[in-house]
Amino acid sequence: MDFKQFLQIHQYQLAGVPESLWERLYHKLSQDLVDAGEAFELHFGDPDDEYTLHVKKEEGIKEHGDIFLVDHAWTTKPETCRAQLLDNPQLVERLVSMMSISVPEGDAEEEEEEDNTPKDGEVFNKNPDLEVDDDMVELVSKQGNVTKERAKVALQHEGGDILAALMSLTLHPDQDVEALQKLEDTIGLQVKRDKAAKSEEQRKITTVDTIMREMWKYAQTYEYAFVDPSGQTKRESAWYIMDEVGSSLRHSETPNCICSPFIYVGRGTVSYSIIYPIKDLAKGDKLTRDFVPADLKEPIERKAYLQAFHDEHDAAELIAAYETSKQQELNVKHVDSPFNTSIASKNGDYNVRLYTTTEWVASNCNLPNVELVDSEDQADILWFSQDFKDFDKLAKGQKINQFDNESCVTYKHNYAALVKSAYGSVPWAQPTYNMTTELANLVGHYYYNEHHDKRNIWIVKPWNMARGLQITIQQDLAPMIRLRDTGPKIAQEYIQTPMLYEGRKFDLRYIVLLRSAHKDPADPSQGYDFQIMVYKMFWIRLANQTFSLEDFDNYEKHYTVMNYGNYNLTQLLYTKFIENFEKEHTDKKKWTDIQADINEAIKAIFAAAVTKPQPEGLGGVDMKQPYEPFSIYGIDVMLKDEDGDHCQPVVVEVNFSPDCTRACKYDPDFLNNILTVVDPRAGNLDKALQAFNVL
User: Fold this and answer.
1) Residues 553 and 523: beta-carbon distance below 8 Å
2) Where in this protein does the record put region Disordered (predicted)?
3) Is the peptide bond before 338 cis (omega within 30 degrees of 0)?
4) Out of 196, 198, 406, 603, which residue is the most buried by the measure of CB atoms under 10 Å away?
């Protein structure tokens, strides 16, 4: 690769690098010249017990005077890093040194135990209540060639002494001393080995746990693209820790160098980091960089982010910021409901023409009055599975399955902002923070929980992904803060007391139809009437394992979406669920009351959406357009188990254009009912409305 090709391939990465350094960078990359050791040296204990990087050159280094490559010691993902560490002791040893981690010592030799040999006249088992280790029982059972139950009794009688238990089971009183000594040596050696192995395994696990806590002070991230087996281009984030040179850079509010990842496409694809000075550096100067992302400008937001790098936290100002935001939410005036429950029936012999790009719609449409057409221009109803942008091209009277700006509810950060704006804090929505704009309030809430002895468990989600992609559960603050670096995300307080079904966590998927029509077709300036209705049939998504507040990496315990992976999927009809739920939770409300609460929460969301102007809501100038929008949404609801008979619904999220293949299998009239309500010419409106709760 020549220099011209290098510039063309890497132009976007080079945009942030001074042009005077491009050619020097090219030569170092093409030769894999990692020469930072010639310019810098590591110091330890300046002033803390950690490594720092200092200029070694006598003449120093001028601003933009040179650029250096830094290797990456470890590249990983949060979901695989533990397994990688457990399988790679050399990497663990290197990271322990880089991070200045104190490794726990092995267990000291235990003191000699007292003699528990039974005395004359004592019964065989003098300690029947003594707890003995299963591994010890297994060992005595095999060595003594007896059942595990007999081995356990012998161990209990001998006070847990393995050798004494084996002697009581296998040695005759007149056996020679040599046989006794051989048995004692064999068993003693095996016991020592077992103890050493257990001690080493525990030390290994403890060390890995420490690395996983400390790694967020050192880890950096970049995004890369790849082509999946279906041929689609996807993007993922990789986490990496630089080598000893890069990892010794320290934070400063007035940094003297830049350090950033650089993916070199030359000899294959190789990831480095690059360092170059942005100030003149003299010999002995310590190199510093700014750890905080460039988009965080406000001092309080910068302080919040830097909590990921400190062992001692500065919580007071952040808690105060959180408490101020909560007080503001309490003062929010609630919006009024703008809905109309009447739907005008339209009679007459007319084929409703439907154009759709949505597979489940095309394959389940079997109304005699509905005709599938191939042209958008011919259609009365347009139904797209992808985002639609050309609203200005729609003809008067055409109906389309999207509202302009409906991302105000379907993007998770927008949904949370809409609820806060319209209602403040409400019991049917979990505390949620946009990690791009509300990091200080999130960190303050975390510290507030700590100060009030409330356990911190948070679920971190991308703004706009479905199917459980890139969702993690976090208890520690540092990884939660740093996950902000992998793209826009929200952090939502985890529901720690969910209602359970046969001991398992679940959520409920509802299909909600938002429908609008002109109040007066002769005068579109009056805007729209809105109807909101919830399909009575819902479906249940069950975790596969018994719920508990532990083992948060276990997908089948803490997540409920099982139909997009290699998991068992529980099929449960909603009527059977209701019947069993009421039997299991006789101390709670009847389902009719719970359903009424769910309906009210859903109604409140869309009342806010249609009342608030764009971009916060759906209202505004587009309300006067000639077309008639409608949309169906997948609403995910969890039930929170609260004191007494209260079962609090929580609307977790609102999903755009849900795949309703499963709903059509449960109810063959599912799509027909929706189409008829959208356009009553399609079928029997009275019959279709029976499938909905009209709010």
Assistant:
1) no
2) 103-129
3) no
4) 406
Q: Assign 311 a pLDDT band (cuts: 50, 70, 90).
A: confident
Cα–Cα distances in angstroms (integers) from residue 459 to residues 81, 195, 491, 653, in the given order: 19, 39, 6, 13
Q: What mean pLDDT is predicted for residues 61-82?
A: 93
Q: How far is CA 376 from CA 361, 625, 626, in A?
A: 15, 18, 16
CB count within 10 Å of CB 215 equals 21
Residues 6+ apart with CB under 8 A from 176: none
Distance CA 188, CA 193 (A): 9
Phi-psi region of 452 (alpha: psi -120 to 50; beta: other; left: phi over 0): alpha
HSE-CB of 218 using CA atoms within 13 angstroms? 29
The per-residue pLDDT for range 458-473, each reduced to its tens digit, is 999 999 865 556 789 9
Q: Does the pLDDT of residue 125 top 90, yes or no?
A: no
pLDDT at 120: 42
Residue 48 has pLDDT above 80, yes or no: no
CA distance 165 to 187: 11
Q: Is 421 helix (H, G, I), strand (E, B) or coil?
A: helix
DSSP state of 613: B
Sort 139 into a burial class: Cβ within 10 Å, 0-12 / 13-18 / 19+: buried
- State whether residue 382 is helix, strand or coil: strand
- In sequence order, what DSSP letters do the residues of 535-591 get, joined into one string? ES--EEEEEEEE--SS-TT-HHHH----TTTTS------HHHHHHHHHHHTTTS--H
Q: How many whole angstroms separate alpha carbon 478 and alpha carbon 216?
A: 6
Q: Which helix (H) or strand (E) holds 517?
A: strand 504-518
On whether the CB atoms of residues 220 and 240 are closer than 8 A, the answer is yes
For strand 399-400 and strand 628-641, is the pairing parallel, antiparallel, or unpaired? parallel
Token output for 165: 């238990």
Burial class (CB in 10 A: 0-12, 13-18, 19+), 230: exposed
Query: What mean pLDDT do residues 606-622 have?
Result: 84
* Total length of the chain: 695
Residues 6+ away with beta carbon under 8 Å from 180:
167, 171
Other Cβ atoms less than 10 A from the Cβ of 350: the count is 12
3-state secondary structure 449-491: HHHCCCCCCEEEEECCCCCCCCCEEECCHHHHHHHHHHCCEEE
What backbone torsions phi and psi does residue 368 show, to the nearest 5 degrees?
-65, -25
Name, in order, each residue with C-beta under 8 angstroms of 287's C-beta and a sequence gap of 6 or more: 40, 52, 53, 54, 55, 249, 250, 256, 257, 275, 277, 281
Closest-CA residue to 217 (of 186, 194, 241, 191): 241
Q: Does residue 443 contact residue 308 with C-beta atoms inside 8 Å?
A: no
- Regarding pTM above 0.70, the answer is yes
- Spatial distance between the Cα atoms of 324 and 328, rounded to a whole number of angstroms: 6
b/e 462-481 (16+ beta carbons within 10 angstroms → b): bbeebeeebbbbbeebbbbb
Lookup result for tokens 């890069």: 246
Round to whole Å and give the CA distance between 453 and 521: 59
Distance between CA atoms of 497 and 239, rounded to whole angstroms?
33
* Sequence-separated (6 or more) residues with CB below 8 Å from residue 506: 498, 499, 500, 540, 541, 542, 543, 560, 638
Q: What is the dihedral of CA 62, 65, 71, 73, to 10 degrees?
A: 20
Using the structure block, give the residue that is written with the tokens 């208890």: 475
Per DSSP, the residues of 317-366 read HHHHHHHHHHHHHHTPPPPPP-B--------SS-PEEEEE--HHHHHH--
DSSP state of 498: B
How many Å apart are CA 204 and CA 202, to the nearest integer? 5
